[in-house]
Amino acid sequence: MKTADVYRRVENDPVFQELVARRSRLAVTLSAVVLVAYYAFMAVVAFAPEVFGQPLWEGSALTIGAPIGALLIIVSWLLTGLYVSRANGEFDRMTQEIVERNA
Questions:
Q1: Helix, strand, or coil here: 31?
Q2: Which residues have C-beta within 8 Å of that of residue 56, sequence separation ≥ 6?
Q3: pLDDT digits (tens, 9 = 90+) for 68-84
């Protein structure tokens, strides 16, 4: 069997098309969430620095911007974990089904 035939069968497989759509939709959604959050944070820092420049408590050198920035990083890690979890679970199962159907 030619490799090109296998590629063509896989590309035409409805499960493969669903896999590509789901994976793309998840990647775009998670990327948009992270980008919007980071750019919103940077916009506030640039155009309204007093918002994040308030001290956490009276006399504190630490401002509310620091924990918010740390939270952005943690949320990014968690979203990456979500993607990896879906990739190692749902997406791998779909991939295995495609391989078995088109082997």
A1: helix
A2: 62, 63, 64, 66, 67
A3: 999 999 999 999 999 99
